[in-house]
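HUMAN:
Could you generate one sequence with tokenized structure?
ASSISTANT:
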Amino acid sequence: MRARDILSRPVVTVRRDTALTDAVALLTGHGFAALPVVDERERVVGILSESDAMAAIESGREAGIVEVAMSTPVSVVEPTTEVPEMVKVMLDHHRRSVPVVEAGVLVGIVARRDLLRALARDEQALEARVYSLLEDYSGSHRQWDVEVVDSNVTIRGICADEAEQRVLAAITRTIPGVGEVRVVDTAAIPSDQ
């Protein structure tokens, strides 16, 4: 999954010369984690986070403009950036959201909650798709448990033989987004383990 699949738009932005009190009203009024600061060409030149706003207010600069409180430089991602890279950018830079730019122009924003929803939905959707294929294969007799972690699938249950294990793995690999596939024949596991 990529930034373009989960980004939010339109993005509420501010300019460098926006009154800090107006920017704070936008942050608090809409529950945003941060506001991208853009220039006249919609290029991201900074970001105003809740922390930036609190620091400015605490130091008595709330009567100023956004430029005195915003953070620079700004970490951005492109529409084609994959979820793991966005997670890394947010964690490495201690950000709750990251602007998405294309050819330097702001096109959206991705918040941590967007990533969490995407990650949960991705794994649940993959798991449901695997169950569906396995049920089609077995004639709706659910005999396997499926676990999806980071797009890797583990299928546990009783298999007729190694050929059936290969078939289960092969049909699972046909699902877009599936990483590694592991089939564990629980009948082959000694009962003392």
In short: The chain has a mean pLDDT of 88. The longest strand covers residues 105-111.
